[in-house]
Design brief:
By secondary structure, this protein is an alpha+beta fold. Among the domains are: about 120 residues, no CATH class; about 160 residues, no CATH class; about 60 residues, 2-Layer Sandwich (Alpha-Beta Plaits), CATH 3.30.70. It is built from 13 helices and 24 strands. The strands form six sheets. Strands 1, 2, 5, 6, 20, 21, 22, 23 and 24 form a nine-stranded antiparallel β-sheet that branches. Strand 16 and strand 17 form a beta hairpin. The two termini are about 35 Å apart. About 30% of the residues are buried.
Length: about 500
């Protein structure tokens, strides 16, 4: 925490210097001496008084990231006060990210007469600025909206669900990248939306609740090679099936944690082979009446029809009882001993249906390394800031010290999708470190059933009214809160 505060203060001091260098001449003409400008916080209070803004705006100075907004607001106020409000001025101001104030400060000779004319003006953009900052604070520090684009969590969370994720439940993780484009994650087109070489240290507040087994969790994808900064890695949503200290294994597609079979996951899906005789499957009925979306037609031979269908255990029983022409319906499981090429820990003959046993490390564990388990723990050692060399598969050099043991510095989690045969999860890329956790999904605020092959065909969109404003787990409906939220939002805009 102290390290985070120290770095934040250094960043704030740099902002303070940039502000003084860019506005000292203009501020002097307003009546603020160079000595007054040099005093941190006090100089901002003086400007707020000149511009008739509430003293409460000063709090933006002490919230990470919003201090940048405060300086931009004050610079815009200075432009207004000096009459530099033309479309050209504003375009140049935003185009150069506020740097236009330097040109005004050093190369424009403005008369004091104009200042006095502008002092009593009431600036019309204050309400919009306030609404923007309020939305940014909510998005960054309280709840963040996400859209579900893939089917890896069906049938718990569907493609087209718009969810709200609480950043407070598992402990608020403070921002790591101080300079970025608001309301973007990591890129705009081919360009990064943040400055990667400016980073704050990792810091997380005490959680309201710890992650429990089978919680649905939003986190940053640990193996994202395009984005190295933790909070800018791609966002994933999976179910936490393994906690720090657990031993996890999968046998015949069934998950076991600490040698106990998983329970209570009725929405878990797997691929089933289906064969019908004489008559094909009624695909329209399956999609419209049984809500079965993922159906792949394999082929047809001698009046026999073959399919791969993604089903829950319950729906597989319903289909078997419903259609008389089904010859067989069974799970598509990989055989034991079959080595899936892309599986995590490729020295073992594991696959999606036969995996482990594997130990999920917790903070403080001392792991004895060997030539076989090094593939499991190598990434952990590297990501915790160490250098490791495998010396002839017998001994290891960690930070140039010969050792066979390593002490784990963080807690780790094992994540899996409920769509077990269509989920790129920890079975393929390993553990999720605690510093990659974003938050807990709490609400589905909108849900749209769209054509997965053409999601932008708006005419085919259908609202799933039974899912709108429902909680993730117990499905309680809070539809009325949608209207309350809209009302509060618009009140913020007009007040």
């Amino acid at each position: 925490m102290y390290k985070y505060i120290f770095v934040s203060l250094i960043f704030l001091f740099i902002e303070h210097i940039i502000h003084i260098l860019g506005t000292w001449k203009l501020s002097k003409k307003i009546g603020i001496s160079l000595l007054q400008q040099s005093i941190p916080i006090y100089n901002i209070l003086l400007l707020l008084r000149v511009f008739h803004r509430s003293v409460f705006w000063i709090f933006l100075l002490f919230i990470p990231l919003t201090s940048i907004f405060l300086f931009f607001i004050l610079w815009l106020d200075i432009l207004h006060m000096f009459g530099k409000t033309s479309r050209k001025d504003l375009i140049l101001f935003y185009l150069f990210l506020g740097g236009y104030i330097y040109y005004i400060n050093y190369f424009n000779h403005l008369e004091l007469k104009k200042i006095k004319e502008k002092k009593s003006e009431k600036y019309s953009g204050s309400n919009i600025i306030f609404a923007f900052i309020f939305s940014f604070l909510t998005h960054t520090y309280i709840v963040q909206p996400f859209i579900i684009p893939t089917s890896s969590m069906e049938r718990s969370i569907l493609v087209g669900d718009f969810i709200m994720v609480s950043k407070l439940h598992y402990g608020l993780r403070m921002p790591i990248t101080p300079i970025s484009i608001p309301f973007t994650h990591n890129s705009i087109g081919k360009w990064k939306s943040y400055i990667p070489f400016l980073q704050w240290p990792y810091f997380r507040f005490t959680p309201i609740q710890s992650i429990k087994r089978n919680d649905i969790v939003v986190f940053n994808y640990p193996k994202d090679i395009n984005h190295k900064v933790i909070d800018r890695k791609e966002n994933y949503i999976k179910r936490c099936v393994g906690l720090p200290g657990d031993v996890l294994s999968i046998k015949k597609g069934i998950l076991f944690v600490n040698q106990k079979k998983e329970k209570g996951l009725d929405n878990k899906q797997q691929i089933y082979f289906v064969k019908t005789s004489e008559i094909p499957l009624n695909l329209e009925y399956l999609k419209d009446k049984m809500d079965v979306e993922d159906i792949e037609i394999i082929g047809e031979k001698n009046n026999e029809y073959y399919y791969q269908v993604m089903l829950t255990e319950k729906k597989s029983i319903q289909i078997r009882n419903l259609f008389d022409n089904i010859v067989f319906l069974k799970k598509n499981l990989f055989p034991i001993g079959f080595k899936e090429i892309s599986i995590f820990s490729n020295k073992y003959n594991w696959n999606r249906d036969f995996f482990g046993p594997i130990y999920i490390p917790k903070k403080g564990d001392i792991i004895k390394l060997n030539s076989k388990n090094i593939v499991i723990y190598y990434d952990i050692i590297i990501n915790e800031g160490n250098k490791i060399i495998n010396n002839n598969n017998s001994h290891f050099l960690i930070n140039k010290k010969k050792t066979d043991y390593y002490k784990i510095q963080k807690n780790y989690y094992f994540m899996m999708g409920d769509n077990r045969h269509n989920s790129f999860d920890s079975r393929y890329w390993g553990f999720v470190p605690e510093d990659h956790i974003i938050g807990k999904p709490i609400l589905i605020w909108m849900s749209i059933d769209w054509d997965r092959k053409n999601p932008f065909n708006f005419l085919d969109w259908k609202f799933r009214w039974d899912r709108i404003m429902t909680t993730i787990n117990d499905k309680n409906c809070y539809f009325c809160f949608l209207f309350i939220f809209i009302l509060i939002y618009f009140l913020c805009l007009i007040n």
